[in-house]
Automatic annotation (TrEMBL):
GO CC terms in record: membrane
Subcellular locations according to the entry: Membrane
Broad class of where this protein is predominantly found: membrane
Amino-acid biosynthesis among keywords: no
Stretches the record annotates as Disordered: 1-23
Positions with biased composition (Basic and acidic residues): 1-11
UniProt GO molecular function: proton-transporting ATP synthase activity, rotational mechanism
Keyword tags: ATP synthesis, Hydrogen ion transport, Ion transport, Membrane, Transport
Superkingdom assignment: Bacteria
Keyword Ion transport: yes
Xref: InterPro entries: ATPase_OSCP/dsu (IPR000711)
Name under which the protein is recorded: ATP synthase subunit delta
Length: 177
């Protein structure tokens, strides 16, 4: 986020809705498309990891039924319907959360991906949606919000904490005098 990040308007996807909207609306459409692609990429990687774990578990068991299960798993992995299988593996059972990333400046695609991966790593949460927002009021830094998680490291937060400290200190000094 150091330096000035600019959105490449040449990458904006034109949709029937975006063609009639402002440039800001067009950028938002492009951002949402990227966020959806990022989420699909991460879910696919998670599914591949889960399939590998299942595959390894099946290989370590030595029953004849396990061999047929392993064959079935291989057939599903290699079939054209593997996306359906992946979706079944990644069903969230109502535990998936939406993540809102708020930053003081626009984030690059790589920065977004790093933030989302770190969020998943630290919280062990499944995501159903990613939203990014640019809020200049943060001054600098970022805020992450989901249904069960909140993290903020911004200039705005630092100023709030400083204001609170000063007010508490002055009140204590007034009470002593």
């Amino acid at each position: 986020m150091a330096g000035e990040n600019k959105v490449d308007l040449n990458k904006v996807t034109e949709t029937p809705q975006a063609k009639t909207g402002s440039m800001r609306e067009r950028v938002i459409v492009r951002e949402k498309k990227h966020e959806d692609e990022l989420l699909r990429k991460i879910k696919s990687e998670q599914a591949t990891q889960k399939v590998a774990k299942i595959d390894n578990a099946l290989k370590t068991t030595s029953t004849s039924a396990t061999n047929s299960e392993a064959d079935l798993l291989k057939q599903v992995k290699d079939s054209d319907n593997s996306d359906v299988f992946v979706e079944d593996i990644l069903k969230d059972n109502g535990t998936a959360e939406s993540l809102m990333i708020t930053s003081a400046v626009p984030l690059t695609d790589d920065e977004k991906e790093k933030i989302v991966r770190k969020f998943i790593e630290k919280t062990d949460k499944t995501l159903k949606r990613i939203t990014t927002v640019v809020d200049a009021d943060l001054i600098t830094g970022i805020r992450l919000q989901s249904e069960s998680f909140y993290y903020e490291n911004s200039g705005q937060k630092t100023l709030r904490e400083l204001q609170s400290y000063i007010e508490r200190t002055w009140i204590q000094e007034d009470e002593l005098n």
